[in-house]
Amino acid sequence: MVNDNKVVISLRNVKRKFIVGDETVYALRGVSFDIREGEFVTIMGTSGSGKSTLLNQLGCLDTPTSGEYLLDGVAVRRMSKNQRAKLRNRKIGFVFQNYNLLPKTTAVENVELPLMYNSAFSASARRDAAIKALKEVGLGNRLYHKSNQMSGGQMQRVAIARALVNNPAVILADEATGNLDTRTSFEMLVLFQKLHQQGRTIIFVTHNPELSRYSSRNIFLRDGRIVDDTLNPDIQSAQVALDALPVEEVIDDIVNDTINQDLK
Ligand SMILES: Nc1ncnc2c1ncn2[C@@H]1O[C@H](COP(=O)(O)OP(=O)(O)OP(=O)(O)O)[C@@H](O)[C@H]1O
Ligand SMILES: [Mg+2]
To answer: Are the CB atoms for 254 and 261 separated by under 8 Å?
Structure first.
């Protein structure tokens, strides 16, 4: 399928090196690609291949040593720190492996956070937007649970709702299923696929090459370089995979849930 939507991310020969003591690490050795609106891209590669470094560039958390990055048509490298922070807040939703939620804070408050810096939102508009995002990720029944009162999968849903709430141009996920069991990982994938079907642009970094079946495009990094960049003509349904998971695991989950409930 040819996607001729507008380009939201454009990298041109982006390099990033780190100097540690008298050693230089070439984490990115010249990466170029365009990502269009509505693509669901996985970025894969072994440990140390540069995935997080690349995602940090895309998320404006770090600046390249050289090369050009255009986010929604804006050249990021020439921006001031302040401008970059603003751009990041408006255009990007982040989902991390360890959820990065505020501890002992409710789901709604965590999701409201990115809107705090947006003067277009009143306090009540913020709350409404947070509740809407939490419902979208299937957490309508956990709005006022605190982070320490939720399962890993539920915390990750809160993090995804927080990433969505600002209606960003791109959602960036770094090992978003890395801490989750198989079943919960597939539940997250079902959610990401739903967001993709709604037209969201998603960039999903993972160690796990199996996840490439569920996205629309797969980029492989090796040693700071792209070694493969292909469209997936046959996107598999994560829901079908979830439904096909062995029953034993479901029983395990129920047992674990019961144990967790007892501990609360
Ligand atoms: N802040 C830093 N200072 C020095 N070296 C760094 C820094 N960040 C990353 N590196 C180095 O850059 C290379 C790429 O690291 P990166 O974290 O991008 O890998 P990765 O593909 O995300 O790995 P993993 O799958 O383990 O998360 C590694 O060799 C790493 O040691
Ligand atoms: Mg990493």
So the answer is: no
Bridge partners of residue 94, in order along the sequence: 172
Q: Which residues contact 7 (CB under 8 A, 6 or more apart)?
A: 34, 35, 36, 37, 70
Distance 48 CA to ligand 1 centre (A): 5
Per-residue pLDDT, 246: 84
Looking at residues 11-16, what average pLDDT do you find? 97
For residue 1 and ligand 1, the question of a CB distance below 6 A is answered with no
Contact 122, 130 (CB under 8 A): no
Q: 3-class DSSP state for residue 209?
A: helix
The answer to whether residues 230 and 33 touch, using CB atoms and an 8 Å cutoff, is no
User: Which residue has its alpha carbon closest to ligand 1 atom 7?
Assistant: 18
Token duo for residue 14: 């982006």
Please say whether the dihedral angle defined by the alpha carbons of residues 100, 102, 108 and 112, taken in this order, is positive or negative: negative
CA 221 / ligand 1 centre spacing (Å): 12
Tens of pLDDT, residue by residue over 153-171, are: 999 999 999 999 999 989 9
Residue minimizing CA distance to atom 24 of ligand 1:
47
**Which domains are seen in the chain, by residue range?**
7-263 (3.40.50.300)
Ligand 1 atom with least separation from CA of 55: 18
Element (H, E) at 95: strand 92-96
Backbone angles phi, psi at 138, to 5 degrees: 80, 25
Q: Which ligand is nearest to the CA of 48?
A: 1
Token code pair at residue 155: 């915390």
Q: Is the CB of 53 under 6 A from ligand 1?
A: yes
pLDDT digits (tens, 9 = 90+) for 170-228: 999 998 888 888 898 999 999 999 999 999 999 999 988 999 999 999 999 999 999 99
Determine whether the shortest distance from the Cβ of 27 to ligand 1 is under 6 A.
yes
